[in-house]
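Below is how a single chain appears once it has passed through the pipeline. First comes the sequence as given, then the structure the pipeline wrote out for it. We keep one example in the README because the format questions we get most often are answered faster by looking than by reading.
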Amino acid sequence: MKLSTLALLLVPASLAAQNAPAGPPTDPITTSFRTRIAGFYRNLPQAFDSIPADKFGFKPTAAQQTVGYVAQHLATDNYFFCNLFGDKKAMRTPEETSTPDSVKATWPKAKLVAQLKESVAFCQDAFTQLNDARLPETISYSFGGGPTRTAPRAAMVLGHAIDLADHYSQIANYMRLNGLLPPTALPRPRP
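Resulting structure:
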């Protein structure tokens, strides 16, 4: 066999080997959480960015939360869950931690959206501490000074994912009620 013929046979085989999947990820459970949550980290700030400032006081009924309330609540929840991912802890200002939620909900859009984005950035960093071996570790936490509870760390990661999904659904409905398309309903760019 000629050398040129052999090269023609080996080049495609070596290229195929380079493009073959490397196998399952090292931490498949953590990777699955990270991948699913990444969409919410992108879509939630984008949703709040696209809502006009004069709609941050909107709520569909008197019993529901305003857009501004949901924004501040998400930031607070992000810090709660992501502080439990490992040793990294968020540094928040006294204004953020001591102001009542009902007052924070009325802060200007720019401030609320900035705080939401900061909480997302913190969570992305906190996620780097996680791997599958750390998910079953027992952690302690409390809600608003209540009794201390324990749970596996995985419960906090799952809780975070569910919380993000819940509030994305909520804000997407608020957007539609105001004639706005949520990020996941926007036309996708064609390749």
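The first strand starts at residue 138 and ends at 141.

See the next section for the split statistics.
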